[in-house]
Specification:
119 residues; four-stranded antiparallel β-sheet; mainly beta; Neuraminidase; single chain
């Protein structure tokens, strides 16, 4: 199975979330499976970093939102849809305006997230 996920936060626009030129009324996570593109989540205001577990059973998505600095974990179905979204890690109490950014999973399944202060 070839599985790919894409994100749609409005970070390139001057007013970001409040920019009237946004083409979508939400920030979404999309999957692309066998040529079919589908919206699979609108849970996060600023989905930014994204990574699959090594076995592709889970998808981790970091949120660039200083008011909700979280990593979500979803079960991934064979058709690319997501289920059972849960907060995997909450760093909202970390000081500063930085939120969560890049995300990576290594072969043993350890998750690394760029966030306020460091990795």
């Amino acid at each position: 199975m070839a599985l790919c996920s894409l994100l749609s936060p409005p970070f390139g626009l001057p007013k970001s979330y409040d920019d009237s030129r946004k083409e979508l009324p939400y920030s979404g996570v999309f999957s692309l499976v066998s040529g079919k593109l589908q919206l699979v989540s609108t849970d996060l205001r600023g989905p930014n970093g994204i990574a699959f577990s090594p076995d592709e059973k889970f998808l981790y998505v970091s949120n660039w939102d200083p008011e909700k600095k979280i990593v979500m974990r979803y079960d991934v179905s064979s058709d690319g849809t997501l289920a059972n979204g849960k907060v995997f890690f909450d760093m909202t109490s970390a000081p500063g305006e930085d939120a969560l950014d890049g995300i990576k999973v290594d072969q043993p399944g350890n998750l690394y997230v760029s966030g306020p202060g460091e990795l």
